[in-house]
Fold:
Amino acid sequence: MNKILTFLIALTFCSCNAQTDFNSTIEFTSDLEKFENLSKLKESFKGVEIIAIGENTHGLGEVYKAKAELIKFLYQELGFDLVLFESGFGDAALAWEQMDSLSSKEYTNIFSSNFYYNSEEIENLVSYVKSQNGTLKIQGFDCQPQQNYLIKRMTEIVEPLDSIFAKSVSLEMRSFNNLYQYENDKDTLAFINQRDRFIDFLDNYSTFLSEKTNELLNSGVTENEISAIKKSNKIFIQTYSRINIGEIMSWPLADNIRDNSMFNTVKSFKEENPKSKIIIWAQNSHIENKTKPNYNVDWMGHHLKKAFGDKYYSIGTVVYSGKNLNYNGTFDFEHKDSTFLAYHLNKFQKEKYILDLRKHNKNDFTKKLLLGMENNGNTADFIAKDRFDGLLFINYSDIPKLIQK
Structure:
């Protein structure tokens, strides 16, 4: 009996160690003098329920690795259990329904239509999430309609009951792209007609789901899939039913509309799951607390900070040097100029660390207007302490390792 008890205690101890040992390479500091392991970071996150981890540009693989490390830490040590990617709500919601039957690679290739995220770095995170047996979830919160897996499942779901309607799904969903051309051509009538046609299709699809629920369930469709598509359609309708010509591409109107929609989706996740603690994975601008000087976009992070106050914690990512991937190829960068925030963060000769700006009160470069690299290599001036609650610094990053389909 004593041997059995000893074995069970040892097994429990080993199991606990396996749960908490994730070998993080990220250090933490609040004063840029004393760097420590991440356990000290728990004090900074007391009372925080939503943590947003940014990426200055989407095309950096080491950033993905570091963010994955942070997700493991937040899950294992602080109970954060929901990861929301800057990816289409429908893609991720429907892919999650197939999580158990898909390999990590298959899931990674379909949960997001953002090609940057179809990478080995994200696949490794997905493998970790799969190993947690549903206690850690991945979802999306973006409102952009061109979501490949969503369109595929919308077609497959109705095909057994109405093959003609099924054939129209891809055409009607993809026709949203016509709005960009009509706005460019300043063709107001065509724009309004296309907008209204898109909204009517979504209404009709949701009505079909409601009227054919029993038949759909009998055909193998799940209640969660039906609910996910209805919510996806609702997000599109709320976002685009009143959009006017001049608002689909123009800055800042288009960004204001998109980010307000993304905020409402994040808020709905929190309202539907009040006990969940959320991690947001998005580009730096979407998660910032306060607008950059000379910018007038109402980003998602502005709304989250107003709604949740100190319960919302934003971490902007800064990279000193590396190679970035974008839709047009790759480019090298190194911020050796003292006008860049990365230059100053790199002086501490650390590979990766988090700086807690809430507790960092020294009158140094974090309170000065400096340059940062933004998406696709663009730059912007900002004051770090005003813009974010914390910074994730990475000395060097190569491009993500894209999965070959």
Q: What stands out?
A: Residues 1-21 have pLDDT under 50 and may be disordered. The longest strand covers residues 312-326.
